Amino acid sequence: MSKMWAGRTEGVTSSLADDFNSSIRFDQRMYREDITGSMAHAGMLGATGIITEDESDKLIDGLSEILSDIDSGKLPINPDCEDIHMFVEEVLTSRLGDLGKKLHTARSRNDQVALDTRMYTRSEITSIQEKLISLCEAVIDKAEEYKDYVMPGYTHLQRAQPITFGHQLMCYVEMLGRDIARLSDAKVRVNVSPIGSCALAGTTYHTDRGYEANKLGFDSVSGNSIDGVSDRDFVCETLSDLSIIMMHLSRFSEEIVLWSSWEFKFVELSDSFTTGSSIMPQKKNPDMAELVRGKTGRVYGDLITILTVLKGLPLAYNKDMQEDKECLFDGIDTVKMCLDVFTGMVSSMKANRENMLLAAQKGFINATDLADYLVRKGLPFRSAYKISGRIVAKCIETGKVLETMTIDEYKEFSELFESDLYQEIDLKNCVDKRISEGGTSVSSVEKQIAQAKERISNLKKGLELK
Ligand code: ARG
């Protein structure tokens, strides 16, 4: 069949070239954006007198019917069309005759595809933000439940200082909060209307770009028509933000994998978010966390794809840019799926208070508190640090822990030790003393939870969520 763009050539291409060139397989998911974008364009053509009001109304009605026919399944999308833009225009023309051919006045597929992709990205960003909020809420719930569970905090994956599980969980809420904010920042740059840039140079018609931007809920209109059709920074930026989200989920996943191992046994994942082994009957595997960790590589790949596609492209539109969509869609789909699964996994996860405490008791994680005790008795920190280090070495040699050393044994290291030291190195007390802002004490974690809840309720208002 001859193409709509036949003219300069016969418009007959080999089926091999057709398959290679076509994007309808993946860009059909933007049919809603394409049609609403076209409705705004038809409205502008009528409002500016480029076509008559009556023609404009008929085009808008025709487009609106196409939209509801696709929605209802009455109109299947033809996979043989080159792309979704051509499909909609072809159906419109088959239904309205010559009038349908007027829709493409004062625009090009170049600004049309940029418009559709921006509209699609904008709404997906909001949906990802909603999912991030749900995950934050699930993590906050757990932090509240486990705010006084004492566990070892780690550096270098070595037991470092006692913390609460609630404190550790709230760390992820901070990360996810930045992810939400980052997406809001990206949305500012996504939400710029390119329509009216036309092929690249603008148009001779007296169009009203503000009209279309306004109808479609854009904050502004792109300032340069070449940039309007060439820019895919917003795809790079969105995929960067999605990569950072995945990096955060991947770190969280890694901890969940560790915590649910027999070596740690800090948490137990629910049966509904774990799998068994086909050969080893004892296995309960954290596949969901592992898959999220694995899919992080995939989203990084999506980012690298678009960066590499754009690198070295001359202005303005090049067909290479059609490669922007599969990586964008894949990144969006992957992140949404990961967030849903992660939220379910976290909400149904249970922490084990005894095992956390047991681990906390074994690693001399109150040695800093022992040194601080001597500092309070008048020693400079470096000297106190050295004495505490020697005491730890002695404990390791004799198979003791700081709590089981007698006061006489302590006095061999310093006369400053009195029996009140035991209170100072009590793990629960070590946690409760850390009342500094953002610290690990229960009171401080409670503050973090309250602040996070407030931030989330403000965010929900901003996103117009219930
Ligand atoms: N399917 C194309 C894309 O996704 C639409 C734009 C085509 N423009 C063109 N001049 N061939 O990029």
Structure description:
The protein is built from 19 helices and six strands. With 466 residues, the chain is mostly helical. Bound molecules: arginine (ARG). The site of arginine has 10 residues, from helix 6.
Key descriptive features of the protein:
mainly alpha; single chain; two-stranded antiparallel ribbon; 466 residues; two-stranded parallel ribbon; binds arginine; elongated; 62% helix
Shape label = elongated
What ligand molecules are bound, each kind once? Answer: arginine
Strand order of the largest sheet: 1-2
Contiguous low-pLDDT stretches (5 residues minimum) are: none
Number of strands: 6
Q: What sequence of helices (H) and strands (E) makes up the elements?
A: HHHHHHEEHEHEHHEHHEHHHHHHH
Structural class: mainly alpha
The portion of residues forming beta strands comes to: under 5%
> How far from one another are the termini?
50 Å
Report the average pLDDT across residues.
95
Helix content: 55-70%
> Largest sheet, described in full?
2 strands, antiparallel
Oligomeric state of the chains? Answer: single chain
How many H/I helical runs?
Answer: 19
Q: Mind telling me the C-alpha Rg?
A: 30 Å
Brief summary of the model shown:
The protein is mainly alpha-helical and 466 residues long. The protein contains 19 helices and six strands.
Secondary structure elements and their pairing?
Elements: H1 15-21, H2 24-27, H3 31-47, H4 53-72, H5 84-96, H6 109-145, E1 150-155, E2 158-164, H7 165-190, E3 192-193, H8 209-215, E4 220-221, H9 225-230, H10 233-259, E5 267-268, H11 287-310, H12 324-347, E6 350-351, H13 353-362, H14 367-376, H15 381-398, H16 407-411, H17 421-425, H18 427-432, H19 442-462
Parallel strand pairs: 3-4
Antiparallel strand pairs: 1-2, 5-6
The protein binds arginine.
